[in-house]
Design a protein that fits this description.
- It contains 18 helices and 15 strands.
- The protein has 472 residues and is α/β, with parallel strands linked by helices.
- The protein has 2 domains: 166 residues, Cobalamin-binding domain (Rossmann fold); 211 residues, Alpha-Beta Barrel (TIM Barrel), CATH 3.20.20.70.
- It has a 7-stranded mixed β-sheet with strand order 2-1-3-4-5-6-7, with helices on both faces. Strands 8-11-12-13-14-15 form a 6-stranded parallel β-sheet. A two-stranded antiparallel ribbon has the order 9-10.
- It is globular, with a radius of gyration of 22 Å.
Amino acid sequence: MKVLLVNPPSENMITTNIPSVIDEERGYNPPLGLLYVAGYAKAKTNHEILVLDCQVEEISHEEIEDRIKAINPDVVGIQALTFTIIDARMVALAAKRANPKCKVVMGGPHVHIFARETLAIPEVDFAIKGEGELAFTQLLSALEGVMPYDKVFGLAYRDGVTGQIKDNPPAPPVEDLDSLPYPARELTPINKYYSLIAKHNPITTMFTSRGCPYRCLFCDRPTMGRRFRSHSADCVVNEMEACVKMGIREFFIYDDTFNVNRKRVFDICGEIKKRKLEIAFDIRARADRMDEEMLKELASAGCDRIHYGVESGNAEILELLLKDLDLDHVRKMFKATRAHGMKTLAYFMIGNPTETREMALKTIEFAKELDPDFVHFSVLTPFPATAIYYKALEDGRFDHDYWAEFAKNPTPDFKPQLWEEHMNREELIELLKYAYKSFYLRPKMVMKNMAYTHSPKDFFRKARVGLKMLRI
């Protein structure tokens, strides 16, 4: 069989925020989840596996039907996130128009939550829940008649006789992550992936672990679970070496929390130094699990940036969100990270439960006090299957499960609801615009970002971001 895995365009991305204005010039990252599935299927089957990343190749919905028709796949697998489900559905429509006989499979975090609702979309034949490597490969065997559909882990499908939806138990989480083949980066145009904040381009993304043991109310990563599972240090650095041979020297490590296990951080850094890899990488970390010794080790191994989820400058909001951060320690770690020569990116949210305008302004001022090199502000959006969304339903703030309704029939006019307790939607969006402008348009920040310019192309990309920010 010929199998095409598709990362949809992002033309109809659902958002209540304005990050698209800020981030659209920031670059393109590989669709890592899709590439893990592709790598596993390629290693375990004899099928022809292809990947089409519509975002990095800038393929529009008008073009995608012709691309699929030219490839003529037997199976089309589509990555579906909740905020890209409209685009995912449009790809499914294009696939069925290109070849009505092809089987359309959807997987990803959205499908994990809404498998039955996904199958309400007529163009979708199969939905896969949970981690997709084993489930998708088993489905290919089922399509060949090698195994029955009801034995495929994590599969939801319509019974061919009754038309009823069958919903199989999810696949167990992969325990030995080292047993997984590397993501199939070679199936993508690797030289097109870049980032404005990177030292070296092209870049790639990596997972060195799965699962996060923390319980933040707003977290929306349901497929990975809370139990922390990790690759060994050798495996992590082996994958980095393989990427270096492909011409990639910069890594965006997408673990939810890279520094859960302190020893593993030191083991990975030690292995990078032992092999004398000349690379750069960034991590997502919790400030409360960071210390001076770890920062020194990360910097010596090539860590260039650390992303910290701070979320709020108000201790009472952090407590309510179950974030459990000490703001004084956060201050100390931002200062220490800079002292060790690494850049920082901070994440903040406004529009949280009980939050007033004055509290939101305090968060914006706290962001300026920390003075990270990059900042990402957003308005809290209670996403499906998050504790904050269930709280909104229980409290009557949302009167019905509107995300489930949207999942059955995703349409472009959809607007996610916000936590409009002390500020309404318009006030929150205006405050978000103010946050970005007041942070980035300070003369100090303008000069700092220009100093990070690595090429004329990089300069013009950053200039475009600045001009767009002036207009928001």
